[in-house]
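Human:
Focus on the backbone:
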Amino acid sequence: MAAVEPSADGYVNAIQVYPYTEALYQLYTAPSQVSDIALRKGEEIVSVSAGDTVRWVIGDTESGGGDNVRAHVLVKPIKEDVKTNLVIITDRRAYHLELASTPETHMASVSWTYPQDELLGLRRNNSAAETAADRVIDKGLDIDALRFRYAISGDTPPWRPVRVFDDTHKVYIQFPARLDQGEAPPLFVAGPDGDNQLVNYRVRGRYYIVDRLFAAAELRLGEDPQQVVRIIRTDGRPAATDHDRPAAFDAGER
């Protein structure tokens, strides 16, 4: 199984942040450098196991206190060009990592976001001010079928989406706050000929629900200057630069 590699877009304050799924994650380390694996707040470590405990120093500790306590696993290789695997079992989930020691690259820290947990939390913790329609993103939404496979790029207006996912049938675009109808950006989906087509969607709370899948789309608002946010499905064709954006948009729908 290929490991999920770090990406430049995934770094937040020098910490590589992966969206959590049941996958194998890559961690690059270096001799004389400690790499920190930070788990979710409140998560308790049950066991930590490594394939090679001779050439790797591995330990665990905690930071914070009370509701903010966070478990950390610290790893350090004692030489270059060695690899091993690491399995961390907690009271909530399992983390599988591939550790590689190299003089060229060193990742100071890795952590995760937990999209499925956040979606479940949204369904439990909606405030009393929200309407009944806002309390559930969509009827019949299958949490287990969700795919978080979209990259968001372009401008950074206040309404820039925080997450995009699909359930293999519909695409859900989550915005950072409740959308005001005066600032709701229209959605354009890339057609098979590279042209942008205004697509129908429903607004529910802070979500756009699109009743079809797409490989590339844009949210646009304003005229001079126009704010543009792009959404590209990452398991389709690679996203292009602004100079050759039409090539990315001819990916069409898959």
